[in-house]
Amino acid sequence: MSFAILTESTCDLSAEQLAERGIYCLPMDATIGDTAYRHYADGRELSFEDFYRRLRAGEMTSTSAVNVGDWQEAMEANLTDEGMLVLAFSSGLSSTYQNARLAADELREKHPGCRIEVIDTLAASAGEGLIVVEAARRRAEGASLEETAEYIRWLVPHTGHWFTVDDLHHLHRGGRVSAATAIVGSALGIKPVLHVDDEGHLINVDKARRRKKSILALLDHMKETLIEPAGPVLISHGDCEADAEFLAGEIRALWPEAKILVNMIGPIIGGHSGPNTLALFFIADHK
Q1: Contact assessment for residue 160 and residue 198, using Cβ atoms and an 8 Å cutoff
Q2: Which residues lie across from 278 on neighbouring strands?
Q3: What is the pLDDT of residue 210?
Q4: Strands (DSSP E) found in 89-173
Q5: Residues 6+ apart with CB under 8 A from 9
Q6: Element (H or E) spanning 74, and its range?
Q7: How far apart are CA 7 and CA 12, in angstroms?
Q8: Which domains are assigned to the chain?
Q9: Other CB atoms closer than 10 Å to residue 45's CB: what's the count?
Q10: Where are the alpha helices (DSSP H) in 145-266?
């Protein structure tokens, strides 16, 4: 048996994509309205469609990091003789990675000699998903835990993260833009283009006045920085599948060999970015 790969549900991979690659995915906690849910990749407690319907109706959301106890339980249940690779949500946005490190330290004390590599993906949504997919590919090709971890550490700063949102008020509630920016920007129809920087923080880069222009701006950044035309390209969306498929079509026209996956953004990220978020991830010369 090879080494295990463990991640959590901010990666926004589908249950099928996780299962076919043999990846264990911890659910994270999301609260909408007055009810707390565990967000599983298959949406068993709260469907993606119901989440976005309630979000559009104005219900408030919050999320919780994976705690040390949940990490430790999952690590112990999935640890193999070949070890484990843990890929965690950006430390720039959550304490999930730090909790994973603490859990791994406790497990090493309990099982001396066990090999656990914990890597901060410095990524969110399908950016984290792309890193998970690539780790599974390397494992399937026969790479060892150490070889795969080395590759993933190279990949982290080479995963391009670009996205646009439709409503600035969700970013304001998450502390990403000021109230004035949200009010004025929304009134003017501003569609910001953002990315995740080298420290895993969210950065506002460009502004577009129309939705289509903001989507094409994502493509422009891909043209400027892409280094693996035949590599994985992940697109995640906040219940705006038509926009995601439009972007996928534009990418296929330029790079027919690209391996494109299109998934919905779950409630962990979607509660902060809002409906109609569109995000693009690929292997780049820099983030």
Answers
A1: no
A2: 164, 237
A3: 76
A4: 116-120, 159-164
A5: 25, 26, 27, 28, 39, 40, 41, 266, 268
A6: helix 68-78
A7: 11
A8: 4-156 (3.40.50.10170), 158-283 (3.30.1180.10)
A9: 14
A10: 145-155, 168-173, 179-187, 211-225, 241-254
Question: What is the rounded CA–CA span in Å between residue 67 and residue 49?
Answer: 27
pLDDT score at 272: 84
Q: Which residues contact 47 (CB under 8 A, 6 or more apart)?
A: none
Does an H or E element contain 267, and which? helix 267-273
Burial code (b: 16+ CB inside 10 Å, e: under 16) for 29-38 equals: bbbbeeeebe
> Residues of the chain whose pLDDT is less than 50?
172, 178-188
Task: Tell which phi-psi region holds residue 279, choosing left (phi > 0), alpha (psi between -120 and 50) or beta.
Answer: beta
Q: For the chain, how far is it from start to end, CA to CA, in angstroms?
A: 34
The token pair at 228 is 């693996």
CB under 8 A, 24+ apart: contacts of 91-94: 91/120, 91/122, 91/200, 92/122, 92/196, 92/197, 92/199, 92/200, 92/201, 92/202, 93/124, 93/200, 93/201, 93/202, 94/10, 94/65
Contacts of residue 224, defined as CB under 8 A and 6 or more positions apart, other chains included, come to none
Residue 38's nearest CA partner among 47, 27, 51 is 27
Residue 181 has what pLDDT?
Answer: 44
pLDDT value, residue 47: 96
DSSP string, 216-247: HHHHHHHHHHB--TTSEEEEEESS-HHHHHHH
By C-alpha distance, which of 224, 166, 169, 223 is closest to 193? 166
- SS3 assignment, position 197: coil
How confident is the model at residue 3, as a pLDDT? 97
| 3-state class (DSSP) for residue 84 | strand
